[in-house]
Amino acid sequence: MVNLLVYSGPEVLPSALRTTLSHLARILLPNYTIQPISVSVLLSQPWTANCQVLIFPALKSGTGSAGIFAGIPPRLNGVINDFLEGGGQVLLLNAAGRITRGFGGRGLGGMGGMGSFNGAFGNNASNIDSDTFAFADRTTGLTISPISLPESSQKNSKDQTTRRIRSEVLAETMEQDGSHIAALKCQIGSGFVTFWAPNLENLSEENSPSSTSTFSDPSSSRLILLRYVLSRIGLKPPNSTAGSVSRLLPQFLLSTPDKPGLVETVVHGLLGSVHGGVFQDTHNTFEFYEYDEGLRILRQMKTHNHTESVDDDPSHAHPSTSHITICPNGTVPSVDDTPLFDLSTYFNLLREARARDECRRDVSGFGETLFYGQVVGSTQSMFDKNPRFLSSLVPSIPILSLGSHQLAGRGRGANAWISPSGCLQFSLCIPKVPLSPHSPYINTICSSSSFSSLTPSYIPPSKLVFIQYLFALAVVEACSHPSILGPTLGANVRLKWPNDIYVCYGNPSRPERAEKIKIGGILVSTSFAPGGHEASVVIGCGLNVLCRHPLFSLMRVGKPTLSTPYRDPCCPTSMKDELGHLSMEGTLATILARFEKMWEEFLGSGGSFERWMGRYQDKWLHSDQLVRLTTVDPPMMVRICGITPDHGLLRTLPERNQPGHPGRAIQEGFIDLQPDGNSFDLMAGLIKVKGP
To answer: Rounded CA gap, 684 and 32, in Å?
Structure first.
């Protein structure tokens, strides 16, 4: 789900990473995802498929036989030059370069060259040691070696010896001593490296690249210039009149018009009244407003976002107050107030989907009561970071949290992202799920409605692990429904253990040979009540539905190959004709209805996953897959057998003949692996201990 990666290695200057992320977010949100990336991920993970631009913030300088250079680790030579050779782009901030002729006989991934650039480019006729980093252009036989530019050095030289490389000056700045190159784009193989010289570290956070900025303010002019350069390298910043998504907007609390009274029940459980008020918790303070007042606040904040810039850092500075507008008696806001998600259409499609899947009509169904916001912090954190809020929810009313844009989306472990347009992101909260026959909620009936609870039963704590498998299966099976992709295209949507959604092209019986790309993921958190007799379950999901190029999404599943180039997201090769019916509203409704029916059976069976085990393994990518297991010492080759029916562990069986150890004793029996604590590198065929 990521297409702008920002290098976050130890070579980055202390404040440069935060500054770079902040400025990029202010210029490019919501059109792109922006995420830090480490050296280890660059070297070991398949990041190139979803990366449009790899960005290096200002780096510490190093020294080599050619003098001072930017401290990019030389071990990244191979992977970055391969990325460029394949058509990728690299942007270096506060940096320049020196031209060095020749690859030193080492070719891509092993060249030497380092260099210097002060406002433009310089030359160095000698080859450099292999302990330095350089970009290699096979066409011209030249290497370009990046160096870091201290602020004071930008005016020291105007050497513009760029004629020997395939380059284009993108921007210049005017100083007292004349013009200086501010940005230079150089072709390397089929890709491009862009050097940006001006220093961004000292820009005032009050300045923003808006139509009202003037070049008389150096800070504003640099941001305007950076926005221009980003557009010149193929990025598409949002229109300045489109409004900002770097500030949270008020949310609606509403329910289907078919079952009025659900919203009032939820509000009364939180506040003790139905007329608004304040609910304070650990992570957020929730301010509830009656409908007319809440609508006025939303419209005022949207107008403010259109006319004034904001300087929120999406990764650090989220207001803790959430404004909630209460929609009473089945009131549904108009599409004018929710332009990115048509709530009336959604409720109509949900009603159809629940009838199609034969969901019970006498219960408060999944997705029939929801919080919706156009710009939210995190749908998951709304529940699992606010324990009082979570424990105060009515047990018989599942609640959905839905946001068109997330500023602090969460994945497994420490993974985080800023969501792009077209990504469906939501969290389903099922309050107070009984874990034992002694739970007081096992026969709960919502006293203020005529809807009975789900089938009276309970799920033993050891079976909670299967919820992520069950929901992942619901998502994948829903994609094969005609309302989303249909059975033919939907067969390409597959599961990666334990909770990722992939698109897979190739022979379904040989998925290991198919081309694959991730389009979604699932996160399940469980909050146990005192005594341990019940737990509130929060299921978070992010799924690329209508994301445009360069992200991959359901909208583009019908392509003959994932590697097909897409230069224009609106070109005739889009799936608009074939998948014109595909929508965020219909996709969400179909997924929730499918899962609701499965959940009813899962709860009624006491948490048994047996009836779905075969369907799950039919949809996953790992049947009989041979992988290298590094969680044991020494590592060994194992074959995936399935999932254990008791605790949901990944079951593997060691191979009889281990490579490199022909005389080694073979371990007897199965090796079972927990979902948490282990990471499955699908592309590398590797299972390893999950990092921090």
So the answer is: 27
